[in-house]
Structure formats: structure tokens, C-alpha cells
Structure prediction request, 133 residues.
Amino acid sequence: MRVFLTVVLPLLTPSLLYVIWLVVRARLVASARGGAVPDDGPGADGSAPAPRFVGDTVPWMTLTLSGAALTVAVTLALYTTQSVGTPDSIYIPPRYEDGRIIPSQNVPRVDPTQDQDEDEDEDTGAADVDPTR
Prediction:
């Protein structure tokens, strides 16, 4: 699903919008002419014949480049808004606990060279108190 949203959809959206616009425009032109479909021959003023198919005059390069630009924009937006850990963090995947889903987390790695007794003293401040007194 992520690939569809970040790659396929941004590439297809400009083309789909253009085809919808062509269909709507063709219906508007046909209704303005009283429902008459233009013939294939040159116009009365010597202009080029009307295209027979929807894809005859599609600007494929513009559609391709706009789709690629949209793909890059979506990728950058997702990259900047997603939370990532530091290189020394540990990834904990999502898990099911006590009837609810805990989302994934990036937690800092504990330095094994640190003395754990020092950590406890700093956190509680209870190292200086003698419990026997």
C-alpha cells in the first residue's frame, strides 16, 4: 500500500486528471455545437483536422515530468515527517499487549560500559540515605 501511495498514485494522478479534463471538455464542445461531433477533415478555415482519439494530442512529456515531480514531492514530504531513530538507537516493532497495539518505537541504546549503580543513584537520589538510621 505504501508503494501505491508514494509511487504509483503520484505518477498516475496527472494523467488521470488530464484525461478527465479532456472528456469534460469534449462534452462541453459537443453540447455547444448541438451534439454534433466534428468531422475528420480540415476546418473551413484550413485548420488541422480534429483529433480522432483522446490520446492523439496528449502532452506525454508534460504528464510524465509532472508525475515525477509529484512523486519526488511526496517522497520528500514523507521523509521529513516520518520519525526516525538515531544510528545508535534500537528499533522495537509494533506489538500486541493487554488488548491493545503498541506502536513501534526507536529507543536509545544503553551503554554497557556505564555502571548501573550510578544510574540508580542519579535517578532516585537515595544513595546518600542509610535505611538503617
